[in-house]
Protein: 6-phosphogluconolactonase
Amino acid sequence: MSTAPQLVVHRDKELMAQAAAARLITKVVDAQASRGSASVVLTGGRNGNGLLAALAAAPARDAVDWSRIDLWWGDERFLPDGDPERNVTQAREALLDAVPLDPKRVHAMPASDGPHGADVDAAAAAYAEELARAAGPTDHGAVPTFDVLMLGVGPDTHVASLFPELPAVRETERTVVGVHGAPKPPPTRVTLTLPAIRAAREVWLLAAGEDKAEAAAIALSGAGEIQAPAAGAYGRARTLWLLDAAAASQLPRTLYPPASP
Ligand SMILES: O=C1O[C@H](COP(=O)(O)O)[C@@H](O)[C@H](O)[C@H]1O
Structure:
C-alpha cells in the first residue's frame, strides 16, 4: 500500500539539512524508546551528506544512544574500500567517525576489493542475505522494517542507484541488486530495490537545489516509477519529501502554492 507524499519546504538547503537532522534525531530517540533500538537507511549524495554534517553539528545528537542504532545504506558506488567516492566513506567523514556507534551495527555495502572481488552481483546477493538475517518474524519480508529510509533525489529522478529505465528499477523480487552501466559515475553500483525501500516505516526523499526542481516536479506529478524512480519510493506509514524552496520551484501550484504577498 502506498502512502501519499507529504511535502515540507524549507527556505534553503542549509535550513533543510538542519531541520531534517533535528527530525531524524527525534525519530531515532522515539524508536529507541518504543522498540529498544532504531534502524536507519542512509543515502549518499550532496543532500544526504549535508544532513549528516548538520546532525554532527547539532548539540541534540547526544540525545541518541548511538550504540543502539543499525545503519544500512540505500546504495553504494562499487569501488575499493576507503575510496573517497564511496557513500560510506563520505558518511564516515560527515558524521559516523564522530559518534560512538557499535561497529557490528554499521552495515556498509561490500566494496569492490572485498570478499566478492569485482563481482557486483555476488556483493548485492551478500547484502540481501545480511538484510534477511536482520529481519524478524514481524517484519515484512526479507528486510527489517527500517524506521527511516532516506533517499537523495538525483536531477534525473534517480533514488538510491535506481536509474530511469535500467533493469534495477524494474526488480520486483530481490531486495538488493547489482547495477551495471549507471549513467552517473561510477557505472557499477549496488542498490536496494523498490520492494526493499517500501518495507520502511518512513521514507524521506531529500531534494535541495535548483538542479532538483524538475525531478521533484516530475516525480510528484504522477510519473511512473520506471521513468521516474523517485515516484515509486514510499514508506509503509509515511512518505515525506523534504525540499528547499529552489527544489520546490517547479512543483504544480496544487502541491506547493506560492507564498502570499
Ligand atoms: O550517486 C548518487 O546520487 C544520489 C543523488 O545525489 P546528489 O548529489 O545529486 O544529491 C544519491 O542519493 C545516491 O545515494 C548516490 O549514490
Strands lie at 5-10, 38-42, 69-73, 75-77, 148-152, 176-179, 189-192, 202-207, 238-244. The helical segments are 13-35, 45-57, 87-94, 120-134, 194-197, 213-219. The domain at 5-244 is CATH 3.40.50.1360 (Rossmann fold). The mean pLDDT is 96.
